[in-house]
Specification:
Blueprint: H1 9-51, H2 62-84, H3 86-91, H4 94-115, H5 133-153, H6 159-183, H7 189-211, H8 216-234, E1 248-254, E2 265-273, E3 277-281, E4 289-292, E5 296-300, H9 309-313
Helix pairs in contact: 1-2, 1-8, 2-7, 4-5, 4-6, 4-7, 7-8
């Protein structure tokens, strides 16, 4: 065995020459990924802040990269799942894909269970049955998947009937999720299922379109549309501890010279902060207020003052 000390200068030069193209490709790939993460994260954070009425001008923040990383991670999971079965999906007709839609929706349910610790869900509201939303959804999905497996294996049931039933059930679940998001403004686990399902379906449709000579401009518009949806509906519910946009409950104590509530304390939601101050949102409000740091005497990271013995003693 030849040790590095025994290699000739010619061998070393040849090795470096062989590794140079790979190093160039690796460096460009890392740079491209970093740029994609930053651009995506910047758009997501800017849209998230715009919802509260302000735009942060600090471009060099870890939160921007975190937002882009979450978008790629949550998009990459269904894309990876779909591409792993790419050969099967490409050979499927649209009728077969329709039959496959509900079992795939069930698979997205289990993916959402794994991703649920990263999200902050709205308080429970009864949906169809007076039992916890996630548990009855899992139970019903498992039962219906078993029923669909029976229908698929049964030769007595026409494939068209199975396809119609599969698509109808998916549309039923999607309609309830859309109602929660758009009408009731509630973010439940079903919204995470919908994200995984929609990204997977769009991936399959895009791959099939590519095989028929689809335009790359459509892909750009799909990615931009996904960014907008993610920024407005999903990023605000990723826990702040994981680099997401969920507001943090705080109690702000103002100085006696503060222009707002001098020498008083208010409960608020911390949307973002900078070196200059805090962006907070009051109860039942949708627009943020910027509070300079020189107007803040103390910040308690809870909206319940009674939780702190120190603050109770100072009252």
């Amino acid at each position: 065995m030849v040790t590095p000390e025994q290699q000739s200068p010619e061998d070393n030069r040849k090795l470096l020459a062989d590794l140079a193209p790979w190093a160039d490709v690796l460096s460009k790939g890392i740079a491209a990924i970093a740029i994609a993460l930053y651009v995506s994260g910047f758009l997501i954070v800017s849209l998230h802040h715009y919802k509260y009425g302000f735009v942060d001008t600090n471009l060099f923040r870890a939160r921007i990269l975190a937002a882009g990383a979450w978008f790629f991670f949550l998009s990459g999971i269904p894309i990876f799942v779909v591409t792993r079965i790419r050969a099967q999906t490409l050979q499927m007709s649209w009728l077969q894909l329709a039959v496959f839609s509900y079992p795939y929706y069930g698979g997205c349910l289990f993916l959402s269970v794994l991703a649920s610790p990263f999200f902050s869900f709205s308080d429970y509201s009864p949906w169809l049955f007076p039992v916890p939303h996630a548990w009855w959804l899992i139970l019903v999905t498992i039962v219906l998947i078993g029923f669909f497996i029976f229908l698929i294996d049964s030769k007595r049931v026409p494939r068209m009937v199975t396809a119609i039933a599969s698509v109808s059930l998916v549309l039923l679940f999607v309609s309830y999720t859309a109602r929660d998001l758009l009408i009731d403004h509630r973010f439940q686990q079903s919204a995470v299922i919908l994200w995984f399902f929609a990204v997977g379906v769009l991936t399959i449709a895009e791959v099939k379109a590519r095989l028929r000579g689809g335009d790359w401009e459509k892909t750009v518009f799909l990615v931009l549309g996904a960014l907008f949806v993610f920024a407005f509906f999903y990023y605000p519910h990723i826990k702040a501890a994981w680099g997401g946009g969920t507001p943090v409950s705080i109690t702000v104590y103002f100085t006696k010279d503060s222009a707002m509530k001098p020498s008083q304390a208010v409960s608020a939601q911390l949307v973002d902060e900078s070196d200059a101050g805090l962006y907070i949102v009051g109860p039942n409000e949708t627009k943020a207020i910027f509070v300079p740091r020189n107007a803040i005497a103390l910040v308690y990271f809870s909206d319940r003052i009674a939780d702190s013995a120190l603050l109770r003693d100072n009252k």
